[in-house]
Amino acid sequence: MARIDLDLAHAYRPDPKQDSDYALLPLKMSFADGGAYALLGPSGCGKTTMLNIISGLLAPSQGSVSFDGRDVTRQTPQQRNIAQVFQFPVIYDTMTVAQNLAFPLRNRGMPQARIRERVGRIAEMLELSGQLGQRAAGLAADAKQKISLGRGLVREDVSAVLFDEPLTVIDPHLKWQLRRKLKEIHRELKLTLIYVTHDQVEALTFADEVVVMSRGRAVQVGTAEALFERPAHTFVGHFIGSPGMNFLPAECRGGRLQVAGIELAAPVSLPDGPLKVGIRPEHLSLSTEHHPGAVPATVRRLQDIGTCKLLTAQAQGGDMKARLANGTALPAIGQTVWLQVLDLRTCFYRNEELVS
Ligand SMILES: Nc1ncnc2c1ncn2[C@@H]1O[C@H](COP(=O)(O)OP(=O)(O)OP(=O)(O)O)[C@@H](O)[C@H]1O
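Above are the sequence and the adenosine-5'-triphosphate SMILES. Below is the predicted complex in structure-token form.
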């Protein structure tokens, strides 16, 4: 296993001039030895580019990649000792499940007894023990992908295991199970795992730390809790959570905040000038009477989403969503309510970056 340091940028086109010419804008980042990471972001944000640069399938157009302080920028995936699992199964159909799992070990010249032991362990973890003697050709797509995962995880001596959306072909009900399995395997084997996905649930349940990416930039690296409670950038607030964070434009002057057409006392010290007030739908409470820190809004929609009711209310400056626990007394459509936008969990942003 290795600690991985990136200090680089990448443009697919020669002579990049503006930010949009870069698939990865200049970044400095480290992946700790033995950590489980997810690279999360919408299509085209640069996740696969970063993964391919880490694996050695792609050389960055600027800067370097180091493993344990050693420059590996020009090394191939084999030289870097990287295992990779792709979206679709990469296995040998004519081999049995056991032979497929053993393949990376046999290539490294591992003794037979040790191979048997390691294959047995990985098969057990992935619930493939009953199929070890079966030919891979006859198996369903999700079983084949489990073999691919097993082949990625079977070696103990790899620098890191990289996963590029590995659960795409897996049935939704099995996905949940496999994600949990991968997490267990990580805890047990202590491999450095880097997992690319555009699915926030997948990223947040799998990783210790999630790298949220947007337009070639790693906008925040943090735990699921940090990304939820303290998004460092409004993009993270929008992207994480369902629905995402609410934002209202505000103006601060000498400790007073103009927001949604009224003036409120700023709850923390804030710089003068334009701001955005951010609060999660899960944290937004409402009442029918005016309270300090609350703004007026008109109820526009109420949706029953099973686990709770989702209220949409129109405030001056934008629509706000609140998740209301089942059993809460619901206001009527068109009614004016007071939304508690300022509380201990409120975040404040300037130029889209968290200031408090
Ligand atoms: N081989 C290539 N040549 C030119 N441009 C590329 C190449 N591969 C990717 N890009 C561009 O680089 C940017 C980042 O792409 P990348 O595939 O890394 O994003 P991604 O986040 O992995 O997206 P997805 O989830 O759709 O795979 C995109 O604008 C993409 O069009």
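The pocket of adenosine-5'-triphosphate is lined by residues 12, 23, 41, 43-49, 198 (CB under 6 Å).
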